[in-house]
Amino acid sequence: MFLAFLWWQRLPSMLLWLALWTQGFWHLDSLRHSGGHYVMSPDNSPNATLTPLVESVHRQLLDRGHRDAASVARLVVDHDPLLDDQSVADVVSRVHSRVAGLGVLDPFLADGTVDEVMINGSGDLWVERNGRLECTGVLIDSATTYALLERIVAPLGLRIDRTSPWVDARLADGSRVNGVVPPLAVDGPLLTIRRFGARRVHISESCTPGVARLLEWAVQARCNIVVSGGAGAGKTTLLNAVAGFIPSDERVVTIEDAAELRLPGRHVLRLESRPANAEGAGEVAIRDLVRNALRMRPDRIVVGEVRSGEAIDMLQAMNTGHDGSLSTCHANSPADAIRRLETLVLMGDVALPLAAVREQLRAAIDLIVH
């Protein structure tokens, strides 16, 4: 982890980096390496011998309309009276998962060690643990992937089909969902679920005690902080931990494209952007929410990620009495984070010269955590 303090006022022509490095350690499971990936043991996959029974009971259940566990168990026993109790329970669980959950994905989404679940166009089901990709050995046909996507997006009033071939959504637990189908997905429908951890990661799990104390001081001193890093680096996780230092009596507005932040304060207002519908109407962008947040009397504004024109609005918020605000951005280094923010502002619809953009950045940002 690098911490970069920006001493803009004292050294306007220089950028003084205070860098502190903390090391993390991977806790790897025993995995078999194959073709650049890590392949799970077949023992971790569902019992394939029961799959035909699961499918048969599921179809019959849909026809009858009885979905309680007792009805499912009776159907299972009717199909195969010789099944042992454990197998009956397994089939009931898997049928219930198909009816009320996400079927074959549920065991992986319930696994606290899994960070991401992915279905490729070929039907291979992959998961990510500790930054490593693992092939589960489970194959999912295109029809099932389409059904999973529909089950996710339909309750949200969204759609995904050939006329609207991609979608971003959120599960009830906050997990982020992305789906892409043909013609954009050449080899078949794609589904990616980024799990939201129910447990908040404590700052002590992300950095050394010395760095944690420094971050606590920066938040208490109302420094404007940007957390930068690459994709999947844990920016939101760290932002969530750092935001835990915000005093509980402050009014904080959080703004995200998919609500993931879980701040512990009593006065936290959570806003979430909304994509356009199939007709191209109804979009509410991050930028719109930042502007609206300024009218909500916030002590601080926390933007989950700055990625486009909202950068200028965030900077203006930081420069107009909302000290102590926080955000994240994609960048490969602290210096790159500054350049990235410059670019995002220039890409917006506000025509500002580069010198003015840099002045805004210099006045707004106190600390970059990378």
How does this structure look, described?
32% of the residues lie in helices and 19% in strands. It folds into 2 domains: 183 residues, P-loop containing nucleotide triphosphate hydrolases (Rossmann fold), CATH 3.40.50.300; 163 residues, Beta-Lactamase. An 8-stranded mixed β-sheet has the order 2-3-6-5-4-9-8-7, covered by helices on one side. The chain has a 7-stranded mixed β-sheet with strand order 1-15-10-14-13-11-12, sandwiched between helices. Helix 8 runs parallel beside helix 9. By secondary structure, the protein is an alpha/beta fold.
CATH architectural designation of the largest domain: 3-Layer(aba) Sandwich
SSE topology string: EEEHHHHEEEHEEEHEHEEHEHEHHE
Integer count of domains: 2
Q: Which overall shape is indicated by the principal axes computed on the Cα atoms?
A: elongated
The Rg value, from CA coordinates, equals 24 Å
CATH class of the largest domain: Alpha Beta
Number of strands: 15
Q: In the CATH scheme, what's the topology name of the largest domain?
A: Rossmann fold
Beta-strand percentage range: 15-25%
Spell out the CATH superfamily of the largest domain. P-loop containing nucleotide triphosphate hydrolases
Report the mean per-residue pLDDT as an integer: 78
Biggest sheet overview: 8 strands, mixed
Major β-sheet strand ordering: 2-3-6-5-4-9-8-7
- Structural class, please? alpha/beta
> What's the number of helices?
11
**Alpha carbon gap, first and last residue:** 5 Å
Which residues form runs of ≥5 with pLDDT under 50?
A: 7-46
